[in-house]
Amino acid sequence: MMREDGATAPAAAGRKVFYEDLQVGRRFTSGSRPLDADAVKAFARDFDPQPFHTDEDTARGTFFDGLAASGWHTAALTMRLLVESVPVAAGLIGAGVELVWPRPARPGDVLTVESEVIERRELKSKPGYGIVRLRSITRNQRGEVLQDMTSSVLAPRRG
């Protein structure tokens, strides 16, 4: 489904899920989110004001050889796509993250996220919750990995 901002929603986010529903191997696929030069520069001006994020001419002479989105911009877009595609009943409450950016997102990229439950454990200190570890890969329209994130998320138990 195409939205006004050019993004697409996931095919079926489904009902809210609980710890019991998040078995190892369960997968989620997001909709898509386009990225343009104006958004790259605007985010960078506010949160990561470095010339390879804010100025196309200067960026050509840097390590990135052109305008590159901040990794934090990629992370923020990934978060938006995760919220739309991983419908944990209490929301995505983070409890730790490992994050790698193998290549930068660029203007013109369209981002999607594929997530998989890779581990889970009950919380003895909070019996109404469990911890679920998700591996989420953010890719562009060519299938190139832009971000590889493993996160621990609190998930409420049913009932």
Overview of this protein structure:
- By secondary structure, this protein is α+β, with helices and mostly antiparallel strands.
- The chain has a single domain, classed as Hotdog Thioesterase (Thiol Ester Dehydrase, Chain A), CATH 3.10.129.
- Helices cover 21% and strands 31% of the residues.
- It contains four helices and six strands.
- Strands 1, 2, 3, 4, 5 and 6 form a six-stranded antiparallel β-sheet that branches.
- β5 and β6 form a beta hairpin.
- The longest helix has 15 residues.
- The protein is elongated and about 55 Å long.
- The two termini are 33 Å apart.
- The relative contact order is 0.22.
Give a brief outline of the structure:
This protein has 4 helices and 6 strands, in the order ββααααββββ. It has helices at residues 37-47, 51-54, 56-59, 71-85; strands at 27-29, 33-34, 93-100, 110-122, 129-139, 145-156.
Strand content is 25-35%
CATH superfamily: Hotdog Thioesterase
End-to-end distance = 33 Å
Quick check: average pLDDT? 92
CATH architecture: Roll
β-strand number: 6
Report the structural category.
Answer: alpha+beta
Largest sheet, strands/sense/barrel: 6 strands, antiparallel
> What is the CATH C level class, in words?
Alpha Beta
What does the overall shape look like? elongated
The whole-angstrom Rg is 17 Å
Count of discrete alpha- or pi-helical segments spanning 4 or more residues:
4
- The residue fraction in helices comes out at 10-25%
Please name the CATH topology.
Answer: Thiol Ester Dehydrase, Chain A
Total domains: 1
| SSE string, helices as H and strands as E | EEHHHHEEEE
Stretches where pLDDT is under 50 for at least 5 consecutive residues are: none
